[in-house]
Recover the amino acids of this structure.
């Protein structure tokens, strides 16, 4: 029986998911900035609770940012260590892609473009835009707020849905904007996304989204 381990350390809380025997089991540690101290014991505890051995793991899926710099490193290092030790594939996913898919589900896939916007530095954001089918039309980017606003103008030909954890004025653009104090990934939605797009059946490994190359300007 195959088992998939999900790791998300990009947020304040450390989330794990285990898809095993056709069911998804989730474990969460809510104490902030404790990822490195708890993740290994959390994984061991989750596997033990579900009577799943390390040898039964067939895939590791890890969220590779954007998010806490230290948290991302902890998650990727843990995933790579397990993948190397067990000689199993490690798949890397953007938090923006997963959040956008979750955003689409909330709107029952109504026609239009869906955009997730996360805070970066002052006057800077991370964002990604997908269509109602979950297909990425503007891959995850780190941009100035001004550049982001200019990009949005290309997507006003359809209904535009935006979820964000940062306040900015969009009066010049017609859209549905929802401010959320915390924009968080549901492991349940993550699993649905992976199953829907059959990503876990791929024979090739995806590359890590290295922070300095993808999400941070240097």
């Amino acid at each position: 029986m195959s088992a998939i381990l999900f790791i998300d350390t990009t947020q304040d809380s450390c989330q794990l998911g285990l898809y095993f025997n056709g069911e998804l089991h989730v474990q969460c540690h809510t104490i902030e900035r404790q990822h490195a101290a708890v993740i290994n014991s959390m994984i061991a505890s989750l596997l033990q609770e579900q009577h799943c051995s390390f040898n039964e793991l067939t895939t590791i899926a890890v969220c590779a940012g954007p998010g806490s710099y230290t948290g991302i490193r902890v998650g990727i290092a843990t995933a790579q260590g397990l993948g190397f030790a067990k000689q199993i594939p490690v798949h890397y996913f953007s938090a923006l892609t997963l959040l956008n898919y979750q955003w689409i589900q909330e709107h029952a896939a109504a026609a239009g473009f869906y955009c997730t916007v996360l805070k970066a530095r002052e006057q800077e954001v991370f964002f990604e835009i997908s269509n109602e089918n979950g297909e990425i039309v503007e891959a995850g980017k780190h941009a100035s707020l001004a550049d982001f606003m200019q990009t949005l103008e290309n997507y006003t030909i359809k209904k535009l849905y935006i979820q964000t954890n940062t306040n900015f004025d969009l009066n010049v653009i017609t859209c549905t904007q929802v401010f959320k104090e915390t924009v968080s990934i549901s492991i349940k939605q993550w699993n649905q996304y992976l199953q829907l797009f059959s990503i876990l059946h791929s024979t090739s490994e995806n590359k890590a989204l290295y922070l300095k190359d993808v999400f941070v300007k240097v």
Remarks:
- Helices lie at 35-49, 69-86, 95-106, 145-152, 187-196, 211-214.
- The first strand starts at residue 3 and ends at 8.
